[in-house]
Amino acid sequence: MKPPVLALKNVRLADGPRMLFDGVDLALEPRSRAALVGRNGAGKSTLMRILAGLTEADDGERAVTPGTKVAYVLQEPLIEGDTLLDHATAGGAAPHEAAAALESFGLDPAKAATGLSGGETRRVALARALAEDPDVLLLDEPTNHLDILAIETLEGAIAASRASVLIVSHDRAFLERVTQRCFWLENRKVRKLDRGFSAFDAWVEQLTAAEADEARRQDKALERETHWLARGVTGRRARNEGRRRRLMEMRAAKADRLRDTRGAMSMGVATAGTSGQRVVEVKGLSKRFGDRVILEDFSTRILRGDRIAVVGPNGAGKTTLVKLLLGELPADSGQVILGTNLEVAYIDQARADLKDDMLLKDALAPLGGDQIMVRGAPKHVAAYAKEFLFTDAQIRQPVRSLSGGERNRLLLARALAQPANLMVLDEPTNDLDMETLDLLEEMLSDYEGTLILVSHDRDFVDRLATSTIGLNGRGQVVETPGGWLDFLSQNPGFFGVSPAKAPGGRRGAAAQAAAAKADAAAPAGKPAKLSYKEQRRLEELTGLVADLPAKISLLESQLADPALYARDPGAFDRFGQALAAARQKLEAAEMEWLELEERREALESGR
User: Fold this and answer.
1) Over the stretch 68-95, which tens digit does the pLDDT of each residue have?
2) Which of these, 138, 486, 487, 579, could form a disulfide with 468 (CB 3.0-4.6 Å)?
């Protein structure tokens, strides 16, 4: 293995009385691609700052190869300079490289660096970092506010980069595509997995099970030693002082373990009174701002229980469409009919209702007092905040002290307190850790009301959506059953050109490649049929798609055996690896099957 270009050794850092890191080791070898995973508040951003040389650790060593250039894209980047090109060249990038990087993300280099949207700010920061051609690239939540096409552009740029890349992200699909290694920050330590993120969950389950067994053994030993102490250590103090010290150490270790154990987050939503069967009906809807067409002659019907995803590039008008559907924005033409008995919970991606000087308790209880109504029952505001993992101290702190993930959790807490039969979530996944994301997904899966979801998180959309509405920024709006992958397979080339593209700009390489692949799949010329080789492959894939779920189910049942790890750790590891491989194989087979089946149908129908 090559020596690392950037490494931390035995790093320690305290945040007031709280130890944030205690003996962290982390190394990035040349051209490595790694994810840094951990819960909100674990210190991922702080660790990234230490790696970047912006924060000093209390103890330990930061080692960097001489001449190594490190580029760091912060979670909330600040754009400075008169134009986007001024900012992109401020780190030393050549003007032509900076301009090319900006254009690859659909940005005009001459655009003023003020009044930027969240997505534009993120793309400018990424373009600057990539244009600098660094040896090490540190990315903190790089996909926040990016549309899916920009995420694909970033994926292509990372693949083409010579840099070692370390990424903090909640976007599972993104991490699965770009990483080869995982670092897990948990309980003040960092542990390493020499495999990509697709293997992360099975690995964590294995480690967690092993640690639970070890904790039970330690608790048994502590019980024995405590019993020994209670039976008269005083008379044998001289020869048993060592044993007594070990007992005190065991107690301290258990106290540390209990302190580090994260509380269980409670997330629930009560469905309000049943809405009418028809939630929203849209007929011939059109909207434009000046010469810019947002949508034209769009019709749809949203029924009770539907889970609608709204997708498209930044600036395509997704939030505008949502406001039109809710009757908050007048249409130029057409009709919006809202159903009866609707009670709406709306989480805004801009977090506009959260003011920096507002106390957390006032955000939850804006009318004052210590009690709030939570799904129809009174509850103390501090007790409710604890369900979303806020501490007593945070209750009295201003919103400005919260991290991005904590602000999003606060919005969720506030929205979920009230019963609703129509939930509208505009980019709800930004800054949330994966544990919270999984819980949110589980809650939404069980939600009996209607859901409208605006998101760029491909995995989140695929898991939840029963129908997807896509906007391409040129006035075209298409609705397709299923999630993101279903939409792509049924509407090849729909997004074509990014609406965020500036005059004279060009699309990112990954977006171009995706469009080229989609366009190539579209049939041309006279009707034909699949080649012999393609037909054989389609038959093979049909068998795989039919057989693999049973194999996955068997492996899942074997791993569900709580005694397996203790009985045979090697088998547990083999089963975990086999399960991850089978899931990956099934996903790839389904995608290839969809492409071939769509091609077969198109050729046979002469389209």
Assistant:
1) 999 999 988 999 999 999 999 999 999 9
2) 487
How many Å apart are CA 159 and CA 68, to the nearest integer?
A: 20
Question: CA 490, CA 470: separation in Å to the nearest integer?
Answer: 11
> How far apart are the C-alpha atoms of 368 and 300, rounded to whole Å?
41
- The structure tokens listed for 349 are 């991606």
Distances (CA, A) of 100 to 88, 106, 148: 10, 10, 20
172 phi and psi angles, rounded to 5 deg: -65, -45
CB-neighbour burial class of residue 542 (10 A; exposed 0-12, middle 13-18, buried 19+): middle
C-alpha–C-alpha distance, residues 439 and 174, integer Å: 20
Nearest to 470, CA basis, from 299, 245, 312: 312
> What pLDDT sits at residue 590?
75
The answer to whether residues 60 and 9 touch, using CB atoms and an 8 Å cutoff, is yes
CB 6 within 8 Å of CB 31 = no
pLDDT at 238: 46
pLDDT tens string 111-161: 999 888 888 999 999 999 999 999 999 999 999 888 888 998 999 999 999
CA-to-CA dists, residue 177 to 75, 258, 514, 522, 559, angstroms: 20, 35, 14, 25, 26
Question: What is the pLDDT at residue 578?
Answer: 82
* CA-closest candidate to residue 476, choices 314, 325, 285: 285
CA angle centred on 44, ends 43 and 50, rounded to 5°: 90
Q: What angle do CA 305, 307, 308 make, to 5 degrees?
A: 130
Phi, psi (5° rounding) for residue 305? Answer: 90, -10
What residues of the chain score a pLDDT lower than 50? Answer: 233-239, 254, 257-262, 497-527, 607
- pLDDT value at position 304? 87
Sign of the dihedral defined by the CA atoms of residues 115, 118, 122, 125, in that order: positive
Beta strands at 467-471 and 477-481: parallel, antiparallel or unpaired: antiparallel
Per DSSP, the three-state class of 379 is: strand
307-311 vs 371-374, strand pairing mode: unpaired
CA distance 268 to 443: 6
Decide: 181 and 540 in contact? Cβ < 8 Å.
no
* Residue in this structure with the two tokens 């005190």, named with its chain if needed: 248
pTM over 0.70: no
